[in-house]
Amino acid sequence: MIKNTKPVDALFIYLLRLADSNLILSQRLCELCGDAPSLEEELAISNVALDLIGQAKNWYEYASELDPLKRTVDHLAFRRDAHEFYNVLLVEQKNGNFAETITRQFFFDAWHLSILESLQDSKDERIKSIASKAVKEVSYHLRRSSQWMIRLGDGTELSHEKMQSAINQLWRFTGELITSDHLEDALERDGLIPDPHKIFGLWKHSIETVLSQAKLVNPDYDAWMYKGGKQGEHTELLGFILAEMQYLQRAYPDAKVW
Q1: Which of 102, 101, 59, 97 is nearest to 77 (CA)?
Q2: What H or E segment, with its residue span, contains residue 95?
Q3: 184 domain residue, yes or no
Q4: CATH of the domain at 173
Q5: How far is CA 237 from the centre of its chain?
């Protein structure tokens, strides 16, 4: 649980939220290597995963510089326990079927692009620079996932049914994306991150535009939502992800390739 963080600590944790969300979603996508519905889609999924890893590395590098414990980038990624991760709960959800994989990606992409575009106006030059570099990649991510949402939602009766089911299942994990806490409110007042109301508006517009074109039903924004990921409280799924992702560093700390 995050309590009474100092300004530098608040920024450090916020950077981890961005980095952790990217890293965990990337790990989920990597699980699909060799298991995608087509070769073309497998390459696309792998490219998205690589983009997210690169972006996570950039956020971790900045976080490492602010870390009171002076941990390295690799330590932040591979040596923290589940309760020390601050990713949103959405990204740790299972890949499921292709409809669920795409819906999870679409919900995240719509938020991710909204955040990055808005962070380009941050008073922090480092944040502005990292966000600006990532916008082009994430614009492609959202375009790709939006096209799949429309193609499957407005496709066959079966594909439409699966897409609507995926939306209904994953919607309860989207609340964290657009809900701020005291930490983010403080950073917003300092001009370091955007107004959460602005992000909600951008995200909502993206979601409704695509779901309308896909002939899918837009869920209730006032529905009960899961929360806690940004405060280090996760589902049991994260533990399994980290067990696989961190195995080498845990077994052979600071291992090097000669």
Answers
A1: 59
A2: none
A3: yes
A4: 1.20.1260.10
A5: 15
Prediction pTM value: 0.94
Q: Is the dihedral of CA 160, 161, 164, 166 positive or negative?
A: negative
What is the per-residue pLDDT for 79?
95
Give backbone dihedrals phi and psi of 35, rounded to 5 degrees, phi first: -135, 15
Please name the helix (run of DSSP H) or strand (run of DSSP E) that holds residue 7, with its range, or none. helix 7-30
- Would you list the DSSP string of 47-61? HHHHHHHHHHHHHHH
Could you tell me if 82 and 239 are in contact, meaning their C-beta atoms sit under 8 angstroms apart? yes
Residue 258 lies in a domain: no
Rounding to the nearest 10 degrees, give the CA dihedral for residues 163, 165, 169, 173.
30
**Tokens representing 66?**
């602010």
Q: How crowded is residue 79: how many other Cβ atoms within 10 Å of its Cβ?
A: 15
166 lies in which domain range? 7-251
State pLDDT tens for residues 163-175.
Answer: 999 999 999 999 9
With tokens 């100092």, the residue in question is 6
How far apart are alpha carbons 60 and 54 in whole angstroms? 10
CA distance 32 to 38: 11
Distances (CA, A) of 42 to 23, 32, 49, 87, 158: 18, 7, 11, 24, 22
The tally of domains found in the chain comes to: 1
> Quick check: is 257 in a domain?
no
Query: What are 196-224's pLDDT values in tens digits?
Result: 889 999 999 999 999 999 999 999 988 99
Strand ranges in 79-159 using DSSP code E only, listed in sequence order: none
24 domain-assigned: yes
- Locate 143 and state its tokens: 């375009």
